[in-house]
Amino acid sequence: MIILVINAGSSSLKFTLYDMDDNKKVLANGLIERIGIEGTSMKYSNFKGEKFQDKVDVKNAREGTKLATDFLVDSKYGVLSSLEAINGIGHRIVHGMEKISEPIRVTEKVKEVLKEGALLAPLHNPHNLVGIEACEAVLPGVPNVGVFDTAFHSTMPPRAYLYGLPYSLYTEDHIRRYGFHGTSHHYVSKIAAQIDGRPASSLRIITCHLGNGASITAIKGGKSQDTSMGLTPLEGVIMGTRSGDLDPAIVIHVMEIKNKTPKEMDNLLNKQSGVLGLSGIGSSDLRDIEEAANKGNQQCAQALDIYAYRIKKYIGAYLAALGGLDILVFTAGAGENSSTLRASVLSGLDGLGFKLDTEKNDVRSSEPRVISTPDSLYKIMVIPTNEELAIAESTEQVLKSS
Ligand code: ADP
Q: Which residue has the higher pLDDT, 70 or 61?
């Protein structure tokens, strides 16, 4: 099967074309950025090593989808003789409310759920829908499948997803924990189980997805039991630019003393906080903050310490929530690449049974690997995530079973 994966954001369109029958080979991928704003550009490469990078004229997602698919059949850069070779399109979708708990073929009913989900994910769902409609226009007749970030967490029990608020806010206004990064947590936990060799149904796993956004998930028997992100991706550990957990009274207090509107407060918490806010060097990238800390910047060293400490606290909490543990997984940009961060998160946890093999931890690799010592009570793994591939696999499964 040839599957096209689309991730449509507010001003970007990411696409990857897979040949699932040829060992899930990536035939081509690309990214169109700054859609609808000045300086729109596109990067594209194919499996033959041919690359394109330049400014492009794309005003909206539909034009972006058209350009992407034109490239796939282009005489110079193309990898398909005709777009009819595409068997299905998998879309990354952020919010499925409580209505969608697995990857699903997109119908009018599914689109209605996406629109409802826009109430809770106003920055994502509308763009995801535009991406789907663009594909319907440009590739008519090709089935679209939605793969939802929230779906994997639909197995959480009420004790994990309900907040201590008036119950009517849940029943009438859908205020509850939904969780995000579900595709990634699910994907890396499946690989962890494969490496471990025991069936996923018998395993307790904590997955730490530490990228620009970051979340931690407790998984038992292959099912999400709890996760750190909540109604929105703002809750949980500290992130690149998001505050993560805080006393909710701070929000009210700061709005009052700084005379901020809800929109301004939202911007402060989502875009100006996290390690960006704490480090004071104007970067949310952990590489910059690690570099500054290594050169003696104390505020950056402190920001890294806080970042790691918050992750450590979640690991402790989820160890208790799961009643024990088998595997701890690190994934995404920082989780996969920063040995310093992993060592810092696990420092002082030997007594609890986490024994990091420091040599293995320092090895740089793009392969999944175990970084704990043989006598560690829990296996510690680094597993590169691949959300695009996970979406392609889910899309293939949905199409094969329908
Ligand atoms: P996203 O969350 O946007 O999908 P990634 O998962 O690729 O992004 O994570 C990107 C982040 O990972 C960067 O902003 C940076 O903080 C972190 N990162 C990537 N490589 C390294 C590295 N070698 N050392 C430390 N942090 C890294």
A: 70
Query: What are the structural domains, with CATH classification, of the chain?
Result: 2-148 (3.30.420.40), 198-387 (3.30.420.40)
Segment 176-189 shows an average pLDDT of: 97
Nearest-CA residue for ligand 1 atom 23 is 337
Region 314-324 average pLDDT: 98
In the β-sheet with 104-105, what is the strand arrangement from edge to edge? 51-55, 41-46, 25-33, 13-19, 2-8, 88-93, 144-148, 104-105
Q: What is the pTM of this model?
A: 0.94
Three-state DSSP at 295 gives coil
Q: Label the pairing between strands 144-148 and 88-93.
A: parallel
Q: Give the angle subtended at the CA of 315 by the CAs of 309 and 316, to the nearest 5°.
A: 90
pLDDT score recorded for residue 131: 92
Structure tokens at 106: 């997109």
- Which helix (H) or strand (E) segment is 321 a member of? helix 298-322
Ligand 1, pocket residues at CB < 6 Å:
211-213, 240, 285-287, 290, 332-334, 337-338
Q: Ligand 1, atom 19: nearest CA belongs to which residue? A: 333
* Ligand 1 centroid distance, CA of 194 (Å): 25
Instruction: Give me the percent of the chain exceeding a pLDDT of 70.
Output: 100
73 and 80 in contact (C-beta within 8 Å)? yes
CA-angle at 34, arms to 28 and 36, nearest 5°: 115
Measured between its terminal Cα atoms, the distance across the chain in Å is 14
Res 102 pLDDT > 90: yes
The angle, 0 to 180 degrees and rounded to 10, between the axes of the packed helices 248-257 and 262-271 is: 120
Per-residue pLDDT of 137-179, as tens digits, reads 999 999 999 999 999 999 999 999 999 999 999 999 999 999 9
